[in-house]
Amino acid sequence: MVEGPVKTTSTYSMDWIFPTLRKPICGIYLWNIASSITVATVGLFSKILIGWLNKAKCHNRNTFSKILDKRPKDVPLITVSNHHSCFDDPGIWGCLKWKHLMNRKTIRWSLAAHDICFTNKLHSYFFLLGKCIPVIRGNGVYQDAINFCVEKLQNGEWVHVFPEGRVNMTKEFIRLKWGVGRMIYDSPVTPIVVPIWHIGMEEILPNDPPYILKTGKKVTFNFGEPINFSGLLKELRDARVNAECARKAITEKIQVELMNLKIQTEALHKLYHS
What is the pLDDT of residue 10? Predict the structure, then answer.
């Protein structure tokens, strides 16, 4: 999702993945059954681990639930969040209501690193059935993964993005990657964009070995208010800026909103777990 292609060292061919997502060789009916089972199983696991076995607090969940319930079918949804642990997705969704968490039709599509989640065919099928999309970091905003996300947004679906582009283990400031800017700018219907900040996920699944899931940890999730892009998008289109400038401006607005949400969430985390 960054500008400019780079070489990848992966020898595993993923040429079959996007044709399979668009037209499963087993047939769409069997694929949807397998996907429903995968989504429900992972959702149940996330709910148990996050909601029951750890000390999780979720702020503003009801507002987000209303968006999931009342969003018009033709209006797409994009969620963006910080990325501090390999369990952020599906872990974040463990605080959702059951009806949202277990529904294959409405649960998010999520970008996932190809060199971590799609290293062999077995892993690839598991993540594809769980509605994950292999993104090749460094291959730019016009790669297959971003194109596929734009297609899903055109259908009014939900896409989740970690715009930092990697697990930010040091929690440093990282300029957000512009792929999400392209998704918003190229969507024929302006998406609802909801920022999410979370604290404590790296305590549940540490970033250093041994990679063992933990219980009893303090976690906070904060669902922000939707980001209003109507004014900015009109300004960019009226000015007829080039696509790169538009992506940059949109992504910078998301960065500002996420940083504001970070400050709020840090205060909530201290309040909830003091």
Answer: 55
- Domain count within the chain: 1
List the domain range (segments joined by +) for residue 99.
17-272
Q: Indicate whether 76 belongs to any domain.
A: yes
* pLDDT for 11: 74
CA trace torsion 71, 76, 79, 85 (10° rounding): 120
What is the secondary structure of 195-257 as a DSSP string?
Answer: EEEEESHHHHS-SSSS----SS-EEEEEEPPPB--HHHHHHHHHHT--HHHHHHHHHHHHHHH
pLDDT of residue 5: 37
Is 25 inside any structural domain? Answer: yes
Name which of 49, 98, 82 is nearest 160 in CA terms. 82
Which residues are 110's β-sheet partners?
132, 160
Low-confidence spans in the chain with pLDDT less than 70: 1-10
Residue 168 lies in a domain: yes
